[in-house]
Predict the structure.
Amino acid sequence: MNSPQIPSIDLRTPTGSVPIPLLGLGTWQSDGDLARHAVRHALEVGYRHVDTATGYANEEQVGRGLADSGVPRDEVFVTTKLPPEAAGRERETLERSLRLLGTDHVDLWLVHWPPNGQATPSTWQAFRELRDEGLVRAIGVSNYSLAQIDELIDATGEAPALDQVPWSPRDLDARLVAGLALRGVVLEGYSPLKRTDAANPVLAEIAARHGVTVQQVVLGWHLHHRVVVIPKSTNPQRIEANLDVLGFTLGDEEVAAIDGLSTVEG
């Protein structure tokens, strides 16, 4: 299949911007050779963004998939994450991730969860220092609230480039969207398909109208809102189908109907 041109959005850094492809491959619960083969296949068919984490225990297999694909390292956007229990061991954890991934840097490094439920500015400061050393191109957080992000900003003067949170039509939170945008923080969604009811009649009708699947509609909805999305699969056909979302465009009324599925109050 022809490699599609996946749109990107810029992550802010103190020295400029780092583009992140809006669509990537998630690897949560992808283990062993399944992870390796999924990453290789994804890159061969046109993905240029792969998301992993220390906590997934698959960084070595992800790294092998990157190497197997033959795609130059500088053409692939790689994200990994620091487990909350590794707060205070940031350098050690990152260096191990780099060894396992077989690379001298990652493009994005996230605090996977707030350590002990706290924003933990000391970890954020360590992230900033390791980024400034060139081991990471951009830094961000995952599962952080706006209040926790503000605590990091107040302590260091720097906002995370990105916040990765669970996201799907039912998770649409206008307050969070607006709050992140106000702070210059990109929104990235995980588990978009797992959190979606594939039998929802609104999504099914829109999918039928465009001749696509409900899953493709959901991914297209993310792209319309310029929310980074990382659907996970180890199935080659589904990996390809998840990428094949650039050939149709949702209309404004369709987007509004999908937005209306949100179960978030306010």
User: Anything to note?
Assistant: The beta strands are 8-13, 16-21, 25-26, 49-51, 77-82, 106-111, 136-142, 162-166, 186-190, 228-229.
